[in-house]
Amino acid sequence: MTMFQPIGVASDRVLATLVAGLEIEFGHGAGEALAQRFLEAEESDFLWDARRSERWLGTYESADEEDFELDRVAIMGRLDGRWFVAVSIVDGDGNAHGLMGRRHFRSERAAREAFAVTH
Fold first, then answer.
1. In a 3-state reduction of DSSP, which class is residue 5?
2. Does residue 62 contact residue 19 with C-beta atoms inside 8 Å?
3. What is the pTM assigned to this prediction?
4. Domain boundaries, given as residue ranges, for the chain
């Protein structure tokens, strides 16, 4: 039986689960390096899915002329045991398109304080 959980529910185990799956597929020792590269490549999606709080900051003014509107959204959450605050670029359907910045924190309290003043 297969069991699915949203990343937000299992965010503290994401890296360990990803490494385990990659090691099954590519062999012992390859999982850690591949997992880090995968997380780096898909960072905005992982952070968006692991968010616990979000706050709309305004419209994203792109240098490129996009055919659709994007928004800047402050997010706070926990991924792989680390608290983060980031500013995501998100479309109207709730899909992450990139990051404007991300910071890590040692505690939820520190992350909440940073989240409150993110603009």
1. coil
2. no
3. 0.78
4. 42-117
